[in-house]
Amino acid sequence: MSAQAERKTENLPQWKKEEVDELAQLIESYESVGVVGIAGIPSKQLQDMRRDLHGTAELRVSRNTLQVRALEAAGLGDLVEQIEGQVGLVGTNDNPFALYKELEASKTPAPINEGEVAPNDIVIPEGDTGVDPGPFVGELQSIGANARIEDGSIKVMEDSTVLEAGGEVTADLANVLNELGIEPKEVGLDLRAVVAEGTLFDPEDLDIDVEAYESDIQAAAAGARNLSINASYPTEATAPTLIAKATGEAKSLGLHAAIEDEELMPDLVSKADAQLRALAAQIDDEEALPEELQGVEAPAAAEPAADEEDESADDQDETEADEADTDDDDDEDDGDGAEGLGAMFG
């Protein structure tokens, strides 16, 4: 606690000092501390929310001035800006993303009252209102809904936006919405900001699809790992794979080049034995083979397909025809040679 904060606390009545101390204890007890808005939440519902958070988070509501003193004393000045209106402090050991998700999931629909600001566009959906013909059709039309009486009932003919986000709810609109059972707002703890490990998170930072985010990170990590391996760039994560890959390639090269190495000898002997047996199977005279190689059968040759037989026959016919042409050419050359000799010695 700073000296200035201590001086401010010293001037407080005893009960306020005790309240600030309890707030400070809450701040010190949790890894993440945030400010939540509680405006519009009935007291009973707020107690229910506090009970539902038990075990995962702690909520404490106090006077704004006392919350400011406790935050300043803890060095959390970034959160002081959020102390405005009806707010409370929340502490948790969960990460800020989990806290935001839990608070959002706990929100429930609620009616909106006259004078409140619409958090979103208020839309009256198309369809039968279930209200009998009467003055209510005029009330719908007066707030901007496309409504009329049809088939003995009041119907809204199309989705009608009767108030845009940020607009103030009038008494007439509040009455119509209440009559239709439309609850356009959500009631719950509204997380304004949270500090964890010295970092300030706004709701916009926390409003993410965690599963999609995790999937993106996993895909990026896998892509980076593959790139590192393909580029032979060693890192702590890829070094074992690169070493295993290099070992396999070195072994394959050694076997191909028949390099005599102690670790390669078992594989080289196996390879040589397989080659020897394949060669022995090609020798017809078994008596010429060592006893352990006698009886080795050559692998059965696959029978050629019908198309291959036809092609072989055609090739054979063409070869025979070529040989016949060659023989004719040889005979002609022999005749020419005899005539030449006769001319020389005749």
General description of the model:
- This protein is of the alpha+beta class and 346 residues long.
- It is 51% helix and 14% strand.
- The chain contains 13 helices and twelve strands.
- The chain has helices at residues 3-10, 14-29, 43-53, 64-73, 77-80, 96-105, 136-142, 171-180, 203-206, 210-230, 239-256, 265-280, 306-345, and strands spanning 32-37, 57-60, 87-92, 108-110, 122-124, 127-128, 147-150, 153-156, 160-163, 185-187, 190-196, 199-201.
- The strands form four sheets. The chain has a five-stranded antiparallel sheet, with helices on both faces. Strands 6-8-7 form a three-stranded antiparallel sheet, covered by helices on one side. A two-stranded antiparallel sheet has the order 4-10.
- β7 (147-150) and β8 (153-156) form a beta hairpin.
- α2 (14-29) packs across α4.
- The radius of gyration is 45 Å and the shape is elongated.
- Residues 298-302, 304-314 and 318-346 have low confidence and may be disordered.
- It comes from Natronococcus pandeyae.
- Keywords: Ribonucleoprotein, Ribosomal protein, RNA-binding, rRNA-binding.
- Residues 291-346 are annotated as: Disordered.
Q: Topology, pairings included?
A:
Layout: H1 3-10, H2 14-29, E1 32-37, H3 43-53, E2 57-60, H4 64-73, H5 77-80, E3 87-92, H6 96-105, E4 108-110, E5 122-124, E6 127-128, H7 136-142, E7 147-150, E8 153-156, E9 160-163, H8 171-180, E10 185-187, E11 190-196, E12 199-201, H9 203-206, H10 210-230, H11 239-256, H12 265-280, H13 306-345
Antiparallel strand pairs: 1-3, 1-11, 2-3, 4-10, 5-9, 6-8, 7-8, 11-12
Helix pairs in contact: 2-4
